[in-house]
Design goal:
Blueprint (H helix, E strand, L loop, with lengths): L1 H6 L4 H9 L15 H10 L6 E2 L2 H11 L13 E11 L14 H8 L25 H4 L7 H8 L5 H17 L4 E11 L19 H4 L18 H9 L1 H7 L6 H6 L6 H13 L5 H13 L3 H13 L2 H4 E2 L1
Antiparallel strand pairs: 1-4, 2-3
Length: about 325
Amino acid sequence: MATEFVAGDYDLRGLVKLIVTSDAYQRAHAPVDIEEPRRLQMEEYLFATPVRRMIAESLYDSIVTAGHLFEVKHSPGRNERTIYETVRVPKAGAEDSKGNVGGDAATDVAMTGTNAMMSQGMSGGGGYGLEAAIELDFAALLKEQEGDDEAVALDNMKAMSKEEIEAQRLMAMRNARRSSMEYEETKVARVIDDNPSFSSSLRMQSPAPDGHFLRIFGQPNRTELGDLRDDTASMRQALMMLNGRITNEASRVGDLEPMYRLLTGASVDFDSAVKLAYLEILTRRPSVTELAEAKEMLAEAESPLIGMADLRWVLLNCHEFRFLP
């Protein structure tokens, strides 16, 4: 293989093609219903791969790819929904030590900005967006420094001592006590165009925040040496796949993806739509039985788009998708 790599002028794409088209790579996995010594022998001498689930990063990126989530897939305005936020605003008629008077709740929310102290409450539940993570701007990180301004600023930075932090905290508490403004909590409705897109796990901060999809599926927190990846299954993983936002968004059919044209309009083609779903998610064509069952699911649904979303959800949650062959 090394000789072929050199002979191919170090073409990485050609090397990958050589590997995936080899007989060894295309062998099926070792059967799980045979005796363990025989299975281990097959894995060692016949290059039969053991069945294993994709690691967290691979599973995450596979869902994003299969669901067309690297880019937005809904046109503007086609996916609006109302969210409700609980905010803390000054009471109507209440006056603080500076003479500021509270008024209409909606006006106070708009005027006070960060002082409104918005909570994280949302109509869909606070834990529905656990797949979101900070995306790193690699272009900015790799940009060369212009002049010495950044270097000087970095040299002038210093860590605050515990005493300085405590002094700032006490000052903030005293300033808060000086205000006699009375506040109340209220719910504010806001219409948003919910048209999400997800980034590759390679562009995210690593490790991901606690509770993120990647951490739930075993990504280590890397706080200690020897902190190994946890590949064991858990109920949280099952719930994330069944009810998580990334699976839900990947299942839905957007009007900007090819699948939409096969399910709407005058040229409806259920056969091609089902075959495309299998190719995108399981990278194979459906069997005759699978095709018939999928078409029945589309026909019995409230609409073909909803039926296809159900089919995609089933395929994303099946073992064939999550486990490597």
